[in-house]
Amino acid sequence: MGIESSTTKSAAPGLRETKKRETRQAISDHATRLFIERGFERTTIAEIADAARVAKKTVTNYFPRKEDLALDHQDAFVASLARHVADREPGESALAALRRAFLAAVAAQDPIAGFAGPAFTRMIAESPALTACLRGLHDQREEALAAALAEATGAAPDAIAPRTAAALIGGVHRVLFRRIQDLTLAGRANAEIAALLEPEAVQAFALLEPALADYARV
User: Which of 169, 174, 170, 179 is nearest to 200 (CA)?
Assistant: First the structure.
């Protein structure tokens, strides 16, 4: 019976985690390629497993739902608006923090904001299942934002003010996300979309100023 050194023992968990991340990424990459080539509904879990050279069970262990394979950044998407509220600067209102964060995402052409490229955007638009899933993610993001606003203002979790504010702010984000999708499907490049969207985003957020300019100010 051999005895592992302390170095081997400490390194093993790191290696295992690295291998898991690599396997997860490989499955996601093959799934995205197949979804784009064949369509989301026409691609099976078994085909993804074959392409990634893993067992079908391995795919479902990493991605419990088929939609998770296509929208694998959904956790970051759902948490994004609430996180910006939590991270707002001293003296900054929730609206100002979210506007600042969105304009930064546009400048960076961030996929979380909707800059997913024509092939991926078309894949979502042509899939009823993914379109429905995306709507659900918008709903979840709005709910998380409402919870963050309630905490920031000391309101009850089910109070009407944070829920209303979240609906208004979430509505602007939905409109701008859809605008990026539409421009992408129209053949506009990301840089062009970003240039077009910046003034539109400023205008959209300005419509909320009369109601929310000072809401949840630090």
Answer: 179
Structure pTM?
0.87
Distance separating alpha carbons of residues 76 and 63, to the nearest angstrom: 16
Max distance between CA atoms of the chain, in angstroms, equals 74
**What are the tens digits of pLDDT across the range 164-176?**
999 999 999 999 9
Give the helix/strand (H/E) hosting 88.
none
Structure tokens, 45: 């879990």
Chain centre to alpha carbon of residue 10:
34
**For residue range 119-171, what is the model confidence (pLDDT) as tens digits?**
999 999 999 999 999 999 999 999 999 999 999 999 998 999 999 999 999 99
Whether the CB-CB separation of 113 and 173 falls below 8 Å is answered with no
**Long-range contact pairs involving 76-79 (C-beta distance under 8 Å, separation at least 24):** 76/112, 77/112, 77/137, 77/141, 78/137, 78/140, 78/141, 78/144, 79/141, 79/144
The angle formed by the CA atoms of residues 38, 134 and 116, to the nearest 5 degrees, is 60
Name which of 67, 70, 212, 85 is nearest 141 in CA terms.
Answer: 85
- Rounded Cα–Cα distance for residues 133 and 123 (Å): 13
- Give yes or no for a contact between 198 and 192, defined as CB atoms under 8 angstroms apart: no
> DSSP label at 89?
P
